[in-house]
């Protein structure tokens, strides 16, 4: 099965030590702020994606170097298919396959104890329908199950937060409703590093993608869940399609991406109609300050406008760098939203996870592809 994996961009150099130009392409001016005329970049759609590297710059022939570069360094002085979860004790990387509305697909696990790593299928007991987001929590895999129907291989499943014990493969439902209403999607999750409360986003993509048989019952929003008390709190209702979510290492800053530029029609009579992309729609990462022991967020501000497609998965490194899967790659940002590096792939990256003893191996995954990067940017230790 390894032959089906898309390997692209193995970089063992520390990114500050710039490798050969065939692998890393620096911009011709600071942040490529000035391009010679005439230049043009086509607008992405839901069928085609046009990254920065696809920009036509007639009077800069060297711009074409970007097409084959694994890393694009935007700041040389400072540079450095979904729901991936690393279980450190077992040294296994779990990831999901989103199912069609006909049933449960086996999920995937990468055994990092093998050399080379091996890929196999697994099913939790009971199975989880359409796990979309995931993280590690309390020694278990924490999944956002994004689909729901009355009959999924003989049982009813609904959008929920589920745990899986990586030692026994047993799955448990932690949360499946908001005062009797079904959640829409539960797209991604993050655990506050101090309180261990679970924060999650709830867009409406499951309806658009026919992963649920029930039209949305709640507005799109983001939530905080206290697993000790079972209480659920709305933390934000301002984003059109809240998606990726992550905390800074000390828990003082919360990041949530809005992928509302990819949107659809909600009409129970018509059912799922898919999605369309509007480049002028929301495709931002926002930041909030966090206070009151992780129970209050405030001071919302725009942090980053995705330069390609929409910012899907979001995670923060131990050093405080913000990473997001954005179209055909991963963007690495500093704590004020400056783009430092872009890891370029040949598939749409949706999410990623750090693995290894020092959490310096980054696994990327998305539409028909999985990649691995070895570098010195370290992931946060998850409990």
Automatic annotation (TrEMBL):
<feature type="domain" description="SMP-30/Gluconolactonase/LRE-like region">
    <location>
        <begin position="160"/>
        <end position="259"/>
    </location>
</feature>
<protein>
    <recommendedName>
        <fullName>SMP-30/Gluconolactonase/LRE-like region domain-containing protein</fullName>
    </recommendedName>
</protein>
<dbReference type="InterPro" id="IPR011042">
    <property type="entry name" value="6-blade_b-propeller_TolB-like"/>
</dbReference>
<dbReference type="InterPro" id="IPR013658">
    <property type="entry name" value="SGL"/>
</dbReference>
<dbReference type="InterPro" id="IPR052988">
    <property type="entry name" value="Oryzine_lactonohydrolase"/>
</dbReference>
<dbReference type="Pfam" id="PF08450">
    <property type="entry name" value="SGL"/>
</dbReference>
């Amino acid at each position: 099965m390894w032959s089906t994996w898309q390997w692209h961009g193995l970089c063992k150099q520390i990114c500050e030590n710039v490798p050969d130009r065939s692998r890393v392409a620096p911009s011709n001016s600071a942040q490529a702020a000035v391009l010679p005329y005439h230049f043009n970049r086509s607008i992405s759609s839901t069928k085609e994606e046009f990254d920065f590297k696809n920009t036509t710059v007639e009077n800069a022939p060297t711009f074409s170097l970007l097409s084959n570069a694994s890393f694009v360094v935007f700041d040389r002085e400072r540079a450095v298919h979904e729901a991936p979860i690393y279980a450190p004790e077992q040294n296994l990387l779990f990831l999901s396959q989103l199912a069609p509305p006909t049933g449960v697909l086996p999920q995937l696990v990468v055994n990092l104890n093998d050399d080379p790593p091996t890929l196999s299928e697994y099913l939790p007991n009971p199975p989880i329908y359409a796990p979309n987001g995931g993280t590690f929590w309390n020694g278990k895999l924490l999944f956002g199950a994004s689909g729901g129907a009355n009959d999924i291989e003989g049982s009813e499943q609904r959008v929920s937060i589920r745990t899986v014990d990586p030692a026994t493969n047993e799955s448990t439902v932690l949360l499946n409703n908001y005062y009797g209403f079904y959640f829409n999607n539960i797209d991604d999750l993050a655990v506050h590093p101090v309180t261990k409360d679970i924060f999650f986003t709830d867009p409406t993509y499951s309806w658009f993608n026919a992963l649920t048989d029930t039209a949305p019952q709640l507005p799109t929003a983001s939530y905080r869940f206290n697993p000790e008390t079972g209480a659920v709190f709305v933390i934000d209702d301002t984003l059109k399609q809240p998606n990726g979510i992550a905390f800074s290492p000390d828990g003082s800053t919360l990041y949530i991406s809005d992928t509302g530029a990819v949107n659809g029609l909600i009409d129970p009579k018509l059912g799922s109609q898919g999605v369309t992309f509007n480049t002028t729609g929301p495709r931002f990462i926002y930041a909030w300050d966090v206070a009151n022991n992780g129970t209050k967020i405030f001071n919302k501000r725009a942090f980053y406008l995705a330069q390609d497609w929409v910012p899907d998965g979001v995670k923060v490194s131990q050093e405080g760098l913000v990473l997001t899967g954005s179209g055909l790659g991963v963007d690495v940002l500093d704590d004020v939203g400056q783009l430092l590096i872009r890891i370029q792939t040949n598939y749409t990256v949706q999410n990623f996870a750090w693995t290894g003893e020092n959490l310096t191996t980054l696994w990327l995954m998305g539409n028909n592809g999985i990649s691995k990067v070895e570098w010195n940017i370290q992931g946060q230790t998850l409990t």
